[in-house]
């Protein structure tokens, strides 16, 4: 399936990108990362975590069989986000989409199952990423197999970061 595809540039069906606004006042700022009244029930988060990525470092590419990720890129750095649609039944199968998100363009990105994804910190300082997936990592009580197909160490992977 995904190993034989040549990915072309475009927009991926079912990937949701939403700019995140900052509400400023004399105390600082506040951003709503997501609201339950704006999400489809199937992507409602089951957990949340934040990660810190050093400058120049990438996470991924990997994909999930059942899990949807809800990423929020706020800063203080910027990220290059890579997406590949490897879903054979998707109208955008074979499409690669690249986004820039973070301090200069705060953004929420919803990545459905079967969309291979990665991101690289392209800034000069450490960057923070918030993720609220709709599945628990390793299932209830961390007793299940992790829903992750990793592509980062495959020599001939079609999922290359530049």
Automatic annotation (TrEMBL):
<dbReference type="Pfam" id="PF00908">
    <property type="entry name" value="dTDP_sugar_isom"/>
</dbReference>
<dbReference type="GO" id="GO:0005829">
    <property type="term" value="C:cytosol"/>
</dbReference>
<comment type="function">
    <text>Catalyzes the epimerization of the C3' and C5'positions of dTDP-6-deoxy-D-xylo-4-hexulose, forming dTDP-6-deoxy-L-lyxo-4-hexulose.</text>
</comment>
<dbReference type="GO" id="GO:0008830">
    <property type="term" value="F:dTDP-4-dehydrorhamnose 3,5-epimerase activity"/>
</dbReference>
<dbReference type="InterPro" id="IPR011051">
    <property type="entry name" value="RmlC_Cupin_sf"/>
</dbReference>
<dbReference type="InterPro" id="IPR000888">
    <property type="entry name" value="RmlC-like"/>
</dbReference>
<dbReference type="GO" id="GO:0000271">
    <property type="term" value="P:polysaccharide biosynthetic process"/>
</dbReference>
<dbReference type="GO" id="GO:0019305">
    <property type="term" value="P:dTDP-rhamnose biosynthetic process"/>
</dbReference>
<dbReference type="InterPro" id="IPR014710">
    <property type="entry name" value="RmlC-like_jellyroll"/>
</dbReference>
<feature type="site" description="Participates in a stacking interaction with the thymidine ring of dTDP-4-oxo-6-deoxyglucose">
    <location>
        <position position="137"/>
    </location>
</feature>
<protein>
    <recommendedName>
        <fullName>dTDP-4-dehydrorhamnose 3,5-epimerase</fullName>
        <ecNumber>5.1.3.13</ecNumber>
    </recommendedName>
</protein>
């Amino acid at each position: 399936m995904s190993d034989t595809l040549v990915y072309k540039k475009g927009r991926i069906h079912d990937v949701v990108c939403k700019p995140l606004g900052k509400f400023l006042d004399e105390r600082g700022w506040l951003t709503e990362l997501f609201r339950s009244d704006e999400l489809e029930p199937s992507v409602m988060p089951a957990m949340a975590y934040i990660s810190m990525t050093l400058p120049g470092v990438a996470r991924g590419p990997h994909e999930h069989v059942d899990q949807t990720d809800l990423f929020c890129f706020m800063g203080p750095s910027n990220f290059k986000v890579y997406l590949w649609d490897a879903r054979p039944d998707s109208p955008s199968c074979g499409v690669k989409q690249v986004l820039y998100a973070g301090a200069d363009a705060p953004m929420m990105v919803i990545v459905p199952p079967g969309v291979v994804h990665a991101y690289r910190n392209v800034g000069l300082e450490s960057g923070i990423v918030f993720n609220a997936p709709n599945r628990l990592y390793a299932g209830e009580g961390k007793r299940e197999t992790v829903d992750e197909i990793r592509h980062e160490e495959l020599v001939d992977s079609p999922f290359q970061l530049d």
